[in-house]
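User: Hey, quick favor. My workstation is busy. Could you predict this chain's structure for me?
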Amino acid sequence: MPLWLWLVDSLAIIVVLGLLFLGGLVARRRWIARKGVTFELSVNRGAEHSASGWVLGVAVYR
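Assistant: No problem, here it is.
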């Protein structure tokens, strides 16, 4: 098998894995939203109050 064909196959696998990952994120978000009212939030997980350490997420009212 020529080298360029290996590269094309590898690129296709990377694209498919990326799409599966994004699809999983969408499915997880919808699954969380089914449980109740959801909203987007940002949480600073660092010990000190600095600009770094912020994490985006989804919260649920129960």
